[in-house]
Every structure is written in structure tokens, then in C-alpha cells.
Amino acid sequence: MKEWLNAIERDYEVKILYACEAGSRAWGYASADSDQDIRFIFKHEDARKYFSLDAPLEVITIHHPYDAQGWDIQKAFRLLRKSNPNLFEWAFSSTVYVDVEGFQTQLQEQVVSGYSPYSLGMHYLSLARRNLNATTEENGFTGQDQKQLLYCLRSLLIIKGLAERLPVNGQLIPNGLQEEPNTEGSELFLKLIEAKRQGNLIVEQDRARLKQLIHKLLEELSIEVKSFEKGKNATESLNHWLWNLLGLWG
Fold first, then answer.
1. What residues of the chain score a pLDDT lower than 70?
2. What is the structure's pLDDT at 6?
């Protein structure tokens, strides 16, 4: 992995500051055929690119041998300011491949101190609705339908954690390691994970419970999310971090 990431740096003339596993492999519910999703944040080696007429490359996408995508620090920091859910999850990934000078710790601190529960909740509410709407069941209940419901429930459980005023950190993200589920939502989530790992479908009774729970949570959380805290403007702290990374001033 390290050599492959080094090759990206050479090919694109960038410095990777942070690289991690994302998706199901990062959170303990990958199946045998799950893709390996690599995400990274980079800066251009030549700082003059940030002061040129043509904007520097902001996104690097690679499809082989891994499903990989990297964001330039300017793009990443603009999205951090908007409480982007992808960066929230990257920050607390359990599998990190590159972490230059404590980048992950600083990223986590920015999320904890600067993220808006309201914005994050609205992001996940949109994801939940999108995944629910993607389930068609035109040809019966399929593995793809089950996967969409898994990610729908996952988003709703994150919003539920925000509604319970849990801190905006990695504990909000449901994983496949919980041994004793303490709610119907966590129980069904673990059943979905186990079915995904085994390549099976959950039984019809659990399917009915799952759909009922999802619609109930959607109705309740769509109202609750409107009262979430808006958070603070993190522009100043992100600018100072950006300037420091570019070797300017801080």
C-alpha cells in the first residue's frame, strides 16, 4: 500500500498528508467481495499552483487496484467547513495508511470543535432518503435492496446519536463490533451486517420490522434535526492550518 501511494505522489507531483480505509472495511461489515476503498488528502508539492491563474487539480480518482479518491487540501478544507460527512468518517477511520505529522489528530479536532450537528444531520438525512428511494423490490427483495436499507439505517442511527446529544466523533458511527445491541435499531443493524457478510438475506419478519423502524425514524428525525445546533464558523482555524501546511504563515 505504501509503495502504491508513493507512486501516486510521484505521478501527480503531490504530497499525501493522510490516507485511510473508508466504507465497509473501515467499519467492520465488509463481505468477501467488498471493494477496498482508499481515501486520501493531498497537497501539491509546488505551492505556486495555489497562486496561479489555473486552479490546481482538486481530485485524484483511481479505480485499480483499489477504489481510491483523493482531495486537495483546499477542497477538503472547504468541505470541512460545511461539515461534510465523508471527511467526518475519514477522520475516525480505524485503518490509516498515511498520517503526516499528526494530520489525523488535527482532522479529528477540527471535526469535534467545528462541525455543525445540524449540517451533519441534514447530510445524513438526505443520504437516508436517497438510499431508501433506491430500493425498488421490482423483482422481489434483493441483496442490493438490503444493502440500501443497511446504509439507510446506518445514516438514521448517526442522526439518532446526534439527537441524543452525543459528541461529534467516531462513537457516532455504527460498526459491526457491537456484541450486545441495546435498541431495536442496533439489533437490526447487526443482523443486516451479518447477512451482508454471509451473502444472505434477512428473514421476512425482520425485513418488515426494519422497514417499519426506518419509516418511524425518518418521520421523527426529520423533525428533530431542525433543532440541532448550527455549530460555529471554522474558517479562521482552517485557514491557519492551510497556511501552515503550505509553509506560508500561521
1. 30-32, 136-138, 176-182, 249-250
2. 95
The pLDDT score that the predictor gives to residue 193 is 87
Residue 178 phi, psi (nearest 5): -70, 125
Q: Which three cell numbers stand for residue 189?
A: 443493524
Rounded distance, CA 143 to CA 8, Å? Answer: 34
Q: What is the pLDDT of residue 177?
A: 55
Contact indicator for 214, 132 with CB cutoff of 8 Å: yes
CA distance 222 to 215: 11
Give the residue from 188, 209, 203, 213 showing the smallest Cα distance to 141: 203
Give the SS3 label for residue 60: strand
Helix, coil or strand: residue 11: helix
- pLDDT, residue 91, reads 96
Residue 7: C-alpha distances to residues 2, 75, 93, 139, 148 (Å): 9, 22, 23, 44, 34
C-alpha distance from residue 28 to each of 95, 191, 194, 197, 245 (Å):
11, 13, 10, 10, 32
Instruction: For residue 38, give the H/E element and its range.
Output: strand 37-44
